[in-house]
Recover the amino acids of this structure.
């Protein structure tokens, strides 16, 4: 196991890491490759900053004495990028796809509270689509874990000898009783990138997105999730206390675009999905569970 990279109170600088990300890996990753268990720690992450104010505005979270549930993901992003651009990590950063994200918040995190962030690469699995693995992030305060996240990533590498099969018909889309429409402006990728540090070219401009096969820029998946949660937090029945929020990323949200947030509520569980403008295809779907 590799030693853990440790940072005191300043995360690794992003610019050199993006320079490293643009460098091609020496060879095409083998299907049977085993990812190294890389890890990094930031001993003191500051939760209060000017970026937090801009983040609330960009995702439309209400002002509060507590940080949004997705904010520690932003604080941990430099550690994620550091590990994914390490020489020992064999997969190209720009070829990775964010499949799923799950966050558990054990208690609200106060603005100004100092957090210790621990990140590692784990849970590798070979699927018919390629190599899947997880970025595991824990945030601790006063020695106790208060927030946990698992982000599952995919490096596309279909099995060579798999027989060609007919594409399965997607399941019938279930519609929930509550819907709210919102706009995703053309600039939202750049706005979110400025705060989060995630400057993947597919989110920045139509021209750079086309170089990766997209007709237009697409919204960050974690912006879409944060935006959905910002809306849902303002609905009647939203609860405080320990909560888990999961989602699966599906069809891209092209910019500019219109999306429909669609949800249903139960006593301790809400199901939600972000649909396209016509309401017939999902950008993401997920569940909120209170404990």
């Amino acid at each position: 196991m590799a030693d853990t990279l440790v940072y005191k109170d300043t995360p690794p600088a992003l610019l050199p890491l993006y320079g490293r990300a643009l460098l091609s890996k020496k060879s095409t990753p083998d299907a049977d490759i085993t990812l190294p268990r890389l890890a990094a720690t930031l001993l003191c992450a500051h939760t209060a900053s000017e970026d937090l104010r801009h983040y609330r505005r960009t995702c439309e979270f209400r002002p509060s004495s507590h940080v949004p549930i997705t904010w520690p993901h932003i604080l941990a992003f430099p550690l994620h990028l550091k590990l994914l651009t390490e020489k020992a990590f064999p997969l190209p950063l720009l070829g990775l796809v964010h499949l799923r994200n799950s966050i558990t918040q054990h208690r609200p995190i106060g603005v100004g509270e100092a957090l210790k962030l621990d990140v590692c690469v784990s849970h590798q699995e070979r699927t018919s689509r390629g190599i899947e693995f997880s970025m595991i992030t824990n945030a601790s305060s006063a020695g106790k874990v208060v927030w946990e996240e698992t982000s599952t990533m995919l490096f596309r590498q279909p099995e060579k000898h798999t027989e060609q099969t007919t594409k399965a018909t997607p399941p019938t889309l279930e519609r929930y009783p509550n819907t709210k429409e919102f706009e995703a402006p053309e600039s939202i990728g750049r706005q979110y990138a400025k705060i989060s540090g995630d400057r993947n070219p597919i989110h920045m401009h139509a021209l750079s997105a086309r170089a990766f096969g997209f007709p237009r820029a697409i919204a960050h998946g974690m912006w879409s999730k944060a935006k959905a949660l910002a809306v849902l937090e303002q609905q009647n029945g939203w609860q405080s206390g320990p909560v888990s929020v999961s989602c699966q990323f599906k069809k891209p949200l092209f910019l500019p675009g219109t999306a429909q947030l669609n949800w249903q509520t139960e006593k301790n569980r809400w199901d939600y999905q972000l649909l396209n403008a016509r309401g017939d295809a999902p950008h993401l779907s997920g569940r909120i569970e209170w404990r």
About this structure: The longest helix spans residues 71-84. The helical segments are 14-21, 50-59, 71-84, 188-196, 201-204, 206-210, 221-232. The two ends are 35 Å apart (CA to CA). The chain has seven helices and eleven strands.
